[in-house]
Amino acid sequence: MQLFDDAARFHIFGVHCCREFSLLVDYIIDDPDQHKSAVLQHVQRSSDSGLLSWNARESLQEDDVFGIECVGGRQAAEKAVEFWRAYFRALGEIVIDAGHLCDSLI
Fold first, then answer.
1. Per-domain boundaries in the chain
2. How far is CA 101 from CA 19, 41, 90, 91, in A?
3. pLDDT tens digits for 11-70?
């Protein structure tokens, strides 16, 4: 596993299931818009309990993956994920409570 320092740029992304008004928010080094199928594979293969209980995870499509913003450093990424999870919850979305998937898809 490759480790990334705090100087790395991280992409904040979401995976949204419209039918259930539910979504996952996380961060990765890779551009999620360029690696949508890899994002979905990580979501579907994850053993995280929050993701295992997400009914929509097996039916997600590439169109459900979207980029939110790009930030500098792991701490900024973690704070951004917290912010966006709270933001989407305030809008009435069900935000999946899951741990960090991975730093890089490749």
1. 9-95
2. 23, 11, 23, 24
3. 999 999 888 889 999 999 988 889 999 999 999 999 999 999 999 998 999 999 999 999
Question: How confident is the model over 65-83, as pLDDT tens digits?
Answer: 999 999 999 999 999 999 9
CA 47 to chain centre: 15
Q: State the distance between the two ends of the chain, measured CA to CA, in whole angstroms.
A: 10
Residue 34 CB-half CA count within 13 A: 8
The number of CA neighbours under 13 Å toward the Cβ of 98 is 27
**What secondary structure does DSSP assign to 23-88, as a single string?**
EEEEEESS-GGG-HHHHHHHHHH---HHHHT-GGGGG--GGGEEEEEEEESHHHHHHHHHHHHHHH
